[in-house]
UniProtKB/TrEMBL annotation:
SUPFAM superfamilies: P-loop containing nucleoside triphosphate hydrolases. This is ABC transporter ATP-binding protein yadG. One of its GO terms (molecular function) is ATP hydrolysis activity. It comes from the Bacteria. Belongs to the ABC transporter superfamily. Residues 5-234 form the ABC transporter domain. Signal peptide: none annotated. Transmembrane segments: none annotated.
C-alpha cells in the first residue's frame, strides 16, 4: 500500500535566508502514529505547515493521499486536521458554533450528532454555549482539538497539543487519539513530553537543524540505540575501580557506594555473568542490584547532541 503522506527532497528557505528544512525525505503509512521529536527551531512546525498547505516549499514535493499539496490544495486539506501550537480562536463565538463552522469550512454537511460526540469526548459538552473568551487556556486547547476533528479527517497533526495544559486534558486527548487510531486515522505528533511519544507512537522521527536524522520503529530504535545500566549497591565503599577491571565499562557512583556497569541491552546475559565473577574474584561484594534501561529521551538527547 502506498504511504498516505510522501515527502521527497523537501526544502524551505525563508526570505531572510534562513533554511528551515534541508532535503527532508519521509513516508508516513496510513493508520500509524508517528512522533516527530526535535528541539525548538528544529523544523517541526515548518514541516507540518507545508504538509497542511499553510506554507509553500522552496523545493521538493509533498503528496497526501496521492495528491500534491500545492496543486491539489483543496483535496489534501480536506483530508487533514491540524491542532496548532497557538491558541487561535474567535473569542466572541460559542464553542458549538466555532466547531460547527470549522466542519462547514471543509465542505462537510452539518452533523450535530457528530459534533456532540466530539465535544463530549473532550469534556466540552457543558461548555458548548460558552463564548471562547470565557474559557481557560486548557479549555481553549480542547476547542482547537475539536475543530481539527470536526470534518472527520483521515490525518491528524498534533503540534505540541498538550503543552501547558492540565493532566485531565492530556488524558482525555490520549483517549481520543487511541479511538482515532483504532478507526484508521493517521496521527503525526510533535511533543516536548517525550514520555508521550514513548507511550503512544509506532515510529519515532528525530529532526534537528532542518534535517531528519532518522525515522525508525520505536521498539527497534530503543533496542538498537538503547543502553542498560546495572547498578550495584556495595557493602563497603570503593576508592576507585580496581585496575584489573579497567576497560569493563565500570564506573563508581557518589561516595564510592555504587558500582555502575554500562552494557549493550542486546548482549546482557553473558556480559553480566562474567562481570559478577570478576567482582567476586576481586573481593567486591554487593547488597543489592538494579537495572536501568535507556529511555527515548536519552536516545533523543544523544542523537541531537551528535548532530550539532
Amino acid at each position: 500500500m502506498a504511504p498516505i503522506i510522501s515527502i521527497r527532497s523537501l526544502t524551505k528557505i525563508y526570505s531572510n535566508g534562513f533554511q528551515a528544512l534541508k532535503g527532508v525525505d519521509l513516508d508516513i503509512e496510513q493508520g500509524e502514529i508517528l512522533a516527530l521529536l526535535g528541539p525548538n527551531g528544529a523544523g517541526k512546525t515548518t514541516l507540518i505547515s507545508i504538509v497542511c498547505g499553510i506554507a509553500n516549499p522552496s523545493s521538493g514535493t509533498v503528496t497526501v493521499g496521492g495528491h500534491d499539496v500545492v496543486r491539489d490544495f483543496r483535496a489534501t486539506r480536506s483530508m487533514i486536521g491540524l491542532v496548532p501550537q497557538e491558541l487561535t480562536t474567535d473569542q466572541f463565538e460559542t464553542v458549538w458554533n466555532t466547531v460547527s463552522f470549522s466542519r462547514g469550512l471543509h465542505g462537510k454537511k452539518p452533523n450535530p450528532a457528530y459534533i456532540e460526540k466530539i465535544l463530549r469526548d473532550l469534556s466540552l459538552w457543558e461548555k458548548k454555549d460558552n463564548m471562547l473568551r470565557q474559557l481557560s487556556g486548557g479549555m481553549k486547547r480542547r476547542v482547537l482539538i475539536a475543530k481539527a476533528l470536526s470534518h472527520e479527517p483521515e490525518i491528524l497533526f498534533l503540534d505540541e497539543p498538550t503543552a501547558g495544559v492540565d493532566v485531565t486534558l492530556r488524558k482525555d486527548m490520549w483517549h481520543v487519539v487511541e479511538r482515532l487510531r483504532a478507526s484508521g486515522v493517521t496521527i503525526i505528533l510533535t511533543t516536548h513530553y517525550i514520555e508521550e511519544a514513548e507511550e503512544a507512537a509506532d515510529r519515532v522521527g528525530v529532526i534537528n537543524g532542518g534535517q531528519l536524522l532518522l525515522v525508525e520503529d520505536k521498539k527497534a530504535l530503543m533496542a538498537k540505540l538503547g543502553r542498560k545500566q546495572l547498578i550495584l549497591d556495595l557493602n563497603e565503599p570503593l576508592g576507585a575501580v580496581p585496575h584489573r577491571l579497567d576497560g569493563n565499562g565500570l564506573s563508581l557512583g557518589p561516595n564510592g557506594l555504587t558500582l555502575i556497569y554500562d552494557f549493550d541491552a542486546q548482549n546482557e546475559q553473558s556480559s553480566i555473568a562474567a562481570l559478577l565473577s570478576k567482582l567476586a574474584a576481586e573481593g567486591i561484594h554487593f547488597k543489592d542490584l538494579s537495572t536501568r534501561q535507556s529511555s527515548l529521551e536519552d536516545i533523543f538527547v544523544s542523537l541531537v547532541g551528535a548532530s550539532k
